[in-house]
Amino acid sequence: MKQMNKKKTGMVVLKRMREQNQQNKKLKSATNIISELQERIDRHTLTEADEQKIRKQIAKEDAELAAKALDSDRNHQLNKIFSNSMINKKLENASFENYHAENEENAKALAVCRRFVETFNLNQPRSLLLTGAYGVGKSHLAASIMRDISEIDIVLKRDNERDVVLKTRKPTMIFINTPKLLTKIRSSFSKTSEFTEADLLNEIESVDLLVLDDFGSEIKEANNDFAVQKIFEIVEGRVGKHTVYTTNFNVDELFNFYGERNFSRIMEDGNLIQMSGENYRLRGFKK
């Protein structure tokens, strides 16, 4: 009997020891969980430096969104002002590939225009003045320049360490017939105009590339003060920007039209490209 009681007591003690061990394990497990939770809380507690970093990131993202909105507004403004003044239908498909140079002079003009596109850089502004008789392809080459530059991505932000481009935009460009531009300016004086002269000149002066087609045709007389003054304002405002001029007039005639001050501005950082040949518009009417 005593032996049985001892055995039973031993079993009870063993059971209690097991239960105690299990409780200790649970307690240890709970302690570990609490410790781990505390570590997580500590890891996710923001320091003052962390908060400043987050605020800067939020401010940066807000600024980028504002810039996108501004670009959208600007594109809308450009479309509103110049929707009827861009490249005409006959030049919509113009490209370097479908331009046929009939002589060495025009082949050189083609090469210079291609080079203008290849080296296009906002930090190195240049101008081109394409001169020649009617129908030799001046406007065709100018439109081809715009076509190819429209495919360029201007890098705004780059990670130099990883050599990765982070942000880009497309160039802003306007192609406009110069006499039509003067008409646009005059129309802005009307009370019913959707834009002011300042709006128009601001867009003309600020785009990355401006093509003034048929340059000089707005000057019927050398003393056309209004046209000369507006052209001067535009040319002066384009300093530090890429501009392409096409004209049927020679250098001497342009010099007489605009005067030394204006003409020297036009040719600043510019190349003179002389073209020659038959009027391609009349090739089908040869006798």
TrEMBL record:
Q: Which residues form a coiled coil?
A: 20-47
Q: Which InterPro entries match?
A: P-loop_NTPase
Keyword Coiled coil set for record: yes
UniProt keyword list: Coiled coil
Its GO biological process terms?
DNA replication
- What domain of life? Bacteria
Q: Does the keyword Coiled coil apply?
A: yes
Recorded hits in PANTHER family, A to Z, give: ATP-BINDING PROTEIN RV3427C IN INSERTION SEQUENCE-RELATED, CHROMOSOMAL REPLICATION INITIATOR PROTEIN DNAA
Name of protein: Lin1245 protein
Organism, by scientific name, is Listeria innocua serovar 6a (strain ATCC BAA-680 / CLIP 11262)
